[in-house]
Amino acid sequence: MKSPTPDLFGPDAHKTWYETYTQLRVAAPVYKTPDLNMFVLTRYEDIAAVVRDNDTFSNEREKYGGESLLQYPEARAIYTERGWPKQFPLAVDPPEHKKYRALVDHFFLGESLERARPLIEKIVDDLIDGFQQDGEINFVSAFAEPLPTMVITALLGLPLEDIPQLKVWSAAWAAPFARGLSLEQEIWVAEHGVAFQAYLKSHIDERRRAPKDDIISHLVNAKFDGDRPLEDAEIISMLDHLYIGGNETTTFSLTSGLWLMLREPAIYERLKSDTSRIRVFTEEVLRLESPTQGLYRTVTRDTEIRGVPIPKGAMVHLRFAAANRDPSVFKDPDRLDLDRSNAIRHMAFSQGEHHCPGAGLSRLEQNIAFAALLDRLPNLRLTPGKNTFEHVPGFVLRALGSLNVSFDPVR
Fold first, then answer.
1. How far apart are CA 118 and CA 39, in angstroms?
2. Which residue of 108, 143, 250, 266 could cross-link 148, Cys pair, CB 3.0 to 4.6 Å?
């Protein structure tokens, strides 16, 4: 079979992602992108092996000759001269990785996570209270964006009134992962990046003077590996990573979930009659419409995958969304199945040591949100004539630009 040559970075590539993944999985599961030292993986088995091999596939791209996230020196200089150089403590390689993750993981697991439930339930109810009498909303702006943003803002200990500016900084933080930014765009990213850093630094200084019961205060007083206090640059980097990871992808999943639910009436009716299926539904949404389509690793030494030589310094792009529809793992993979027994095996949050730290929080938010929406908004449906179901163009993230839904007003 002739190897495919898909345009992965074209303006319309996002419109046919799943067809492209199927083509690549069959004909070129280890696909070398033209003109780039990057290999795209689309089979579940290969991606699962890579995320567990931190010795060969590093999460620290520049350490082993990989490309910088910001391509232009002028943009990088803004961080070094006016802020702090970009770093990602929560994404470094072992053994330091576990030491950094140990400082934050407990907030998103077990009893600590359950303590966030009342906060999430209140925010969900308050949001629904604000529009349930309207009968029609843009779900993204009315619910899917504010819910996770308000939750992570409150958990970190930042003022809710700062959310509009925080959303701008979030967009700037995530932009470079799409690759291919112009110099002007990278300057914009860096300008907003150092402003975000300065903002976080002001709250770090405030917690040193007057600690509170929040994540910022915890990190200010934490000891790395039980030995030394964290430096400002480390705390800032951990906070901005948690903030972006704590809102963007959950917004995308909530929106995709309601879209998938309402476009298939049988799914909607079954969830209404059997809310115990919401947990599986949430996992199926994450599997089918992975908000993070894929992420990168850098090769630390010459290696090969499926006989394809991959040199040291090359980028390997792990296409999680392709793995999530791999028929060798998920039977009838393009179908949303509320009885799927292995739905939780998806890779929407990656796997292995570098799995998303906020996965538990995102799942909890989605489960609470879908249950409340089904309970409180009668006859929920897609608004006729007002939806294009267009996804926002992008290589890494997948998101519907808007979703208009209607329901019987509750007065």
1. 44
2. 250
Is the pLDDT assigned to residue 226 strictly greater than 90? no
- The pTM assigned to this predicted structure is 0.94
Question: Which residues, including other chains, have CB under 8 Å from residue 396's CB and lie 6 or more apart?
Answer: 177, 178, 179, 292, 293, 294, 295
Report the number of distinct structural domains present in the chain. 1
Q: What is the CATH number of the domain that holds 194?
A: 1.10.630.10
Answer whether residue 177 is part of any domain. yes
The overall average pLDDT reported for the chain is: 94
Q: In whole angstroms, give the CA distance from residue 291 to residue 349.
A: 9
Task: Tell me whether residue 8 is in a domain.
Answer: no
List pLDDT tens digits, range 120-136: 999 999 999 999 999 99
Residue 3: pLDDT over 70: no
**At CA 50, angle to CA 47 and CA 52, rounded to 5?**
115
* Domain-located, residue 185: yes
Residue 284, token pair as written in the block = 């199926």
∠ CA 85-91-92, nearest 5°, is 80
Amino acid at 312: K
Q: 1 in a domain, yes or no?
A: no
- Taking each helix axis from N to C terminus, what angle separates 278-288 and 265-273, rounded to the nearest 10 degrees? 150
Checking if the pLDDT of 1 tops 60, the result is no
Contact 374, 97 (CB under 8 A): no
**Tokens at residue 408, please?**
């019987």
Residue 147's domain comprises 13-406
Q: If you compute the radius of gyration of the chain from its CA atoms, what whole number of angstroms results?
A: 21
Backbone angles phi, psi at 382, to 5 degrees: -70, 135
Cβ 30 vs Cβ 41: under 8 Å: yes
Which of 404, 254, 268 shows the shortest CA–CA distance to 336?
268
CA distance 408 to 214: 39
100, 59 contact by CB (below 8 A): no
- Of 400, 125, 394, 131, residue with least CA distance to 262: 400
Over residues 167-223, the pLDDT tens digits come to 999 889 888 877 778 999 999 999 999 999 999 999 999 999 999 999 999 999 999
